[in-house]
Amino acid sequence: MSTEPTVITVGEGTGAGGQELGYSVVVGEGLLAQLPGLVGPQAERVLVIHPRALRATGDVVREDLEKAGYQAVTAEIPDAEEGKHIQVAAFCWQVLGQNDLTRSDAIVSVGGGAVTDVAGFVAATWLRGIRIVHMPTTLLGMVDAAVGGKTGINTAEGKNLVGSFHQPAGVLADLETLATLPRNELVAGLAEVVKCGFIADEEILRTVERSPEEVQRWDSAELRDLIERSIRVKAGVVGRDVRESGVRESLNYGHTLGHAIELAERYQWRHGAAISVGMVFAAELARSLGRLSDVEADRHREILTSLGLPTTYRDDRWNQLLEGIRRDKKNRGETLRFVLLNSIGSPATVEIPDPSILFATYQEIAEPASSTTISL
Ligand SMILES: NC(=O)c1ccc[n+]([C@@H]2O[C@H](COP(=O)([O-])OP(=O)(O)OC[C@H]3O[C@@H](n4cnc5c(N)ncnc54)[C@H](O)[C@@H]3O)[C@@H](O)[C@H]2O)c1
């Protein structure tokens, strides 16, 4: 495997105030030495935000920043969704205040998508916005959450309801951090990778088809290739649609039913497992609307199954799922909207005026509730 880091640029040009709009996502191994370059010479103090599970990594990052001449402190936050809470953000603001971080200082996030989201939100709001560098440590964080500038926290009413757009100064995706990632987290991240394949890069699908085992190994050349390709897909889309007004919707492929399943499962399913079922549903819908061929629709099921991702859902939850689908943010009034493929690599947002076709499609992915296995 190449040991040279790969640099992918997201966005480009300069803003009205002359500031650089683009940033780099660096993919490779042993990338810590590149962190000071992204934090920049203007910063004196740096806050490293990491989850409990990554205390050792957070400490290494802090020590490295200190060696580079920064005053660095850490803020340890709860793992996973527990971290995306207003009280966690308030704790981080408190640490920032107590350590006198100014507008020229910086935050570094070390962790999965949950940390990226809350740390990004803290960076967006502290002194109306300070610099942040993301160091994603999950596959999902690398290919999705750390790229694109969406930040957010949860409220009692739902996930990601509060947040802002705040682009990072750079992203370091160090593949070595994936060595400790539990297998189910890696596989869940692969669902987003496969999504990128379906909406924009068929070579991703071919690689998974050729090497379903290798792509699940953190140190394989195949996984690195998939990560780089997926980041390029996301970079290409968000670079054209920074505030999610149009083409960015294609990234929601599989997410309409996927979000409804997550809701129905009270977030006990991994996001990747839910969108895996959601992509098969979208493929079946496209098949019945005459948009996708049988071969292309079947390919969804085959690829996702080869990775151990679920492709069916219990048959006794349709009304609940439809309720979740109706809440989807893509909808306009009463009309339901889905991202569907016209062919591999060609997504479009399609209006579904009659929900009865959705129920018919659901029969294609439904299995008796009694035989449903717990996912991932
Ligand atoms: N902002 C965006 O554009 C965007 C996009 C996709 C997802 N998200 C958000 O990302 C979150 C999900 O992210 P995720 O799937 O990375 O999960 P996560 O951040 O919840 O991490 C999963 C678990 O793995 C642990 N972990 C992280 N890295 C590890 C490592 N290297 N070794 C061992 N354990 C490790 C974490 O502490 C956590 O317990 C959701 O909150 C979702 O809303 C945001």
Could you characterize what this model shows?
There is one protein chain. The protein folds into two domains: 6-180, Rossmann fold (3-Layer(aba) Sandwich); 183-371, Dehydroquinate synthase-like, alpha domain (Up-down Bundle). 47% of the residues are buried. It has a seven-stranded mixed beta sheet with strand order 1-2-9-6-5-3-4, sandwiched between helices. The chain has 13 helices and 13 strands. The two termini are 29 Å apart. It has helices at residues 35-39, 55-67, 86-98, 113-125, 139-145, 183-199, 202-210, 221-240, 255-264, 271-288, 294-306, 318-326, 356-365, and strands spanning 6-10, 23-28, 45-51, 71-77, 106-111, 131-136, 150-155, 158-165, 170-174, 313-314, 336-343, 346-352, 366-367. Helix 5 (139-145) runs parallel beside helix 6. It has 376 residues and is α/β, with parallel strands linked by helices. A hairpin with a 2-residue loop joins strand 11 and strand 12. The structure holds nicotinamide-adenine-dinucleotide. Nicotinamide-adenine-dinucleotide is lined by residues 51, 53-54, 79-81, 84, 111-115, 117, 137-138, 140-141, 144-145, 148, 150, 160, 177, 180-181, 185. Catalyzes the conversion of 3-deoxy-D-arabino-heptulosonate 7-phosphate (DAHP) to dehydroquinate (DHQ). Residues 189-331 form the 3-dehydroquinate synthase C-terminal domain. Its cofactor is Co(2+); Zn(2+); NAD(+). Keywords: Amino-acid biosynthesis, Aromatic amino acid biosynthesis, Cobalt, Cytoplasm, Lyase, Metal-binding, NAD, Nucleotide-binding, Zinc.
